[in-house]
Automatic annotation (TrEMBL), chains A, B, C, D:
Its EC number is 2.1.1.148. Homotetramer. HAMAP family: ThyX. The keyword Magnesium does not apply. FAD binds at T89, R112, H113, R114, E120, D212, L213, H214, H218. Its cofactor is FAD. GO terms for biological process: dTMP biosynthetic process; dTTP biosynthetic process; methylation. One of its GO terms (molecular function) is thymidylate synthase (FAD) activity. Gene3D superfamilies: 3.30.1360.170. DUMP binds at Q109, W110, I111, R112, E120, Y121, S122, A123, R124, R196, R223. This is Flavin-dependent thymidylate synthase. InterPro entries: Thymidylate_synthase_ThyX, Thymidylate_synthase_ThyX_sf. Keywords: FAD, Flavoprotein, Methyltransferase, NADP, Nucleotide biosynthesis, Transferase.
Length: 302, 302, 302, 302
């Protein structure tokens, strides 16, 4: 990603004008404001605004008149309790607004999270930039042999080179033809809302995305997960770092009770109890399918 | 409404500690922060936090790198265009968090607006205060004779006195009995989650309510309307004043294109065109039902 | 609960008129249609309509042209996979519409589940019936000594009798006064929208409630849970029985992966792995708080 | 659009098996079930399931025990009243499930309507078909000269031919390369989740889309509007025809109070009243901007 000098100047100007506010301020978040965190080859995540901090979660949970916080330790205990017992509403009391630049095929996954507010750059109204996601060599991955919905190791040698060549050439040609179609130089020019259909899904788009902390954490649980597609996971990872600075106690609870947690089925819990008592359990005696048994083994093996 | 000295001290403390922020600040809103705006006899609305201002609406609509605003005049024109043409997403980019104290029967109407975040004071967990809404004499209104769902003029004389007497006596007795049931003085004490069922719908509850500007304006359009029940309308009116200070341009557009606007049916538009051409139209020749015709007349008669 | 002869006649009439449809039909659900399942002393749950069945979940997950189902066994495997891996959208493809009669304090908890459609009986427009929830003796429970938000054992003897007496007397008096205030016999009559504020939270209301299967299961997970308040849990239990007949495979998966499942934190999983290897772990060496440790022990002890 | 013989056989099989149900049946809708209504060159809309009819709207509005309908005339009056006065919840009590095949750039607009359930064909998991939207000659439109976000007349002659040539050639080449990259013939094969990024936005995707009637009508108001992009409007038009058969009274009310209605601002209403009294009003004396005045003139001129 490289911002233009004009864009950098705009960011610098925004950051050079602190104002006084009576609102809650998260010091960890102020340092992120407006800076573009690079993701993939041309993408980024930028924090545009935020509301609330760890204390605001407790304040809402307690429906307080004032700050609503007690000792920091006491607050962290409450936040962990709320997270562990699936209380969602106090976490909804924090809000974040991001500016994200991302490939269209990533945007199409992302938008499926419906409980958020979105303003996307309009390719009906405006002309898209010539910026395409071309994977780094180590991310040009083979189809997974075991998982229809995943990828295996990196392609190598000639095959990788061929893929790279195709992606670059098709991106360039599609964009050249997009420009040729909308050009009003010696012709009328095709409507932008039609011309955009020629652009492939690795072109970059951008949007403002605003979401509350509860729904953001749900997004991160799914998209920062090892099974998520790499190209959306890197955005989720970048946002995780931001959240850790914004609401550190909530983020720690999220790591312990969501990201690092496992959910065991009734059958799994039953096997577990038998195993702790010293019984040897295998798939045959577990009551689980082969697939569930494999998932169970992954949970309990270090 | 009267806050306790402790509550006032908490508010004063919150207001006495401005912090620096790089975020957008709405000066009009800063002056409201934390103060309790009295509503009804014991209720209030307090702004706890906010995100964004008029410029933030334009910034999102333009998916800008920087402030995204042009001249103030240019911005107001864009905001009016967006409002007039029912663009909802840019208005969703502003957010407000309120602390509201309100009678339960008002809360029951309010909660029907689902696109908001709510943390209500829990009567399972805590003991409710002895505070009940008792209408002022001019608000003790008769059932409307023409509208099943509305009220007519104020009751007078003995009837009004009787109503007042009933509301006061039943509130007091219910609360006394609530206390008697949960008391652990010489007895086990009924569970709070059960005892609360004895309390009438004019008891006050409170909650944190967080909503984006688009959904807030939708709420205000319905609840600040002349047909809304008085007891919720006064809350909507109080919030309207806050919004006018927070996002003045958006609020003016809201007044012009929502609150002061009318929607005319296909039939009404047809009649209108005929009338402007000089034709005399009455209900018989209008194609409307008597009720629609009456509504139409109200729209066009000054 | 007792329906009037007129209401029973309406139900009988609805059930006596089968129609032909090309839509998917769930035989298990047809037998429930319109019948009122009694809950609490005057409440009920009635299935008014439904869309989809187990096969419809698979059909949507596969985005099929036709039925989209393979063998029943194959379908159940897919449903279990989807449930286990938190795929929510295929379950959203089934929908149910219920008519529920319930005390107001239960309705106030219920409505916090926002992703549903609701039409409630309007006490602004209509007059409420004289029906109040009076707990059976075994449900007049003491405040829990260990859990601020729960109840302990049943109250006994005089204390229980006193509670019962209060609830009955206050309900009766409130309703008498409600009637007296709205009466137009020799007086104008107070507006219904005001008079309702005198009614306590154990009065019954009713609503049509429509929700998709994914959100219904989320509701049931929270409200059929042992920690939910008894008075809402009995509604959840009644609905569980209906769902088990409607989408049996999805319901079995729900029991295994939600109701009977446990979520273990990162710390818990770590302890578990150590225990399975034979290490003795106690709270001190677990890295958990006392409360978390207690919750962990409950999970693994049979 | 052409379905394969297998797909037609699946549809025929589904339609040849009527079942008995006690649920409400909409005769107008039964005839549509499963049939694919062709839209654009390869797209379609198919009704997979539905819940409710006109009477179900009234039944919910009245929170009835039985059918809840009175005379058909009475029901239509209620439906019109509900529509006119923006009552949304009774319309949410009807639900529809569609199977839609549509170009990706149309899908990207469509998905912005968040209050719906969606299952899209997964290009991570499966291989997309070689089907691209190529506009008919009359729809290869020029960029609008007056509206940044719209199209003007059809391109002609050589320019149109060139556009057509580009769209066809780029679609074919992109798909050939997509196939070449995922091929496992003599190579590992690129992961599908990556290869899809080479495909342009005119490729067809498909999804199951389920929505309630209130939100569907909101979608139709925006997308069947003359200002909507042609390629989504034709889908909205096809769905309008289905809705007219499903809930005829609600659809008539929708036409009168939404599609054929206009919303006039406070300033417009003021001008109107002056004009009806005989005053001559022009933009200068109207208090409107030039743009608003033009919109006003369009409303009142036949």
């Amino acid at each position: 990603m490289s911002l233009t000098p004009e864009q950098n100047a705009e960011i610098d100007e925004l950051r050079s004008n602190p104002s006084e506010t009576l609102r809650v301020v998260s010091e960890g978040m102020e340092k992120h404001l407006y800076h573009a965190i690079p993701v993939l080859d041309h993408g980024f995540v930028r924090v545009i605004d935020y509301m609330g901090d760890d204390a605001a979660i407790c304040q809402a949970a307690r429906v307080s008149y004032g700050k609503g916080t007690k000792s920091v330790q006491n607050d962290e205990g409450l936040i962990r309790y709320l997270m562990r017992h699936w209380h969602s509403t106090p976490f909804e009391m924090c809000e974040i607004k991001l500016h994200v630049k991302l490939p269209v095929f990533v945007a199409r996954q992302w938008i499926r999270h419906r409980t958020a507010n979105v303003n996307e750059y309009s390719a009906r109204y405006s002309i898209l930039d010539r910026e395409f996601y071309i994977p780094a060599p180590e991310n040009i991955a083979a189809q997974s042999a075991v998982n229809n919905q995943g990828r295996g190791g990196a392609l190598e040698g000639e095959e990788a080179a061929r893929v790279l060549e195709i992606l670059k050439a098709d991106s360039a040609r599609s964009y050249d033809n997009y420009q040729a179609m909308i050009s009003q130089d010696g012709q009328e020019g095709l409507a932008r809302e039609l011309a955009r259909m020629n652009l492939p899904a690795n072109i970059y788009t951008q949007w403002y995305w605003k979401v509350d902390l509860h729904n953001l954490l749900h997004f991160l649980r799914l998209r920062a997960d090892a099974h998520a597609q790499y190209e959306i996971r890197v955005y989720a990872d970048a946002i995780c770092n931001v959240v850790a600075d914004w609401v550190p106690a909530a983020y720690r609870a999220f790591e312990d009770y969501r990201m690092g947690a496992v959910t065991m089925s009734a059958q799994m819990v039953d096997c577990l109890r038998r195993m702790i008592k010293g019984e040897t359990v295998d798939q045959d005696t577990s009551g689980m399918s082969a697939r569930e048994w494999r998932e169970f083994k992954e949970m309990i093996d270090s």
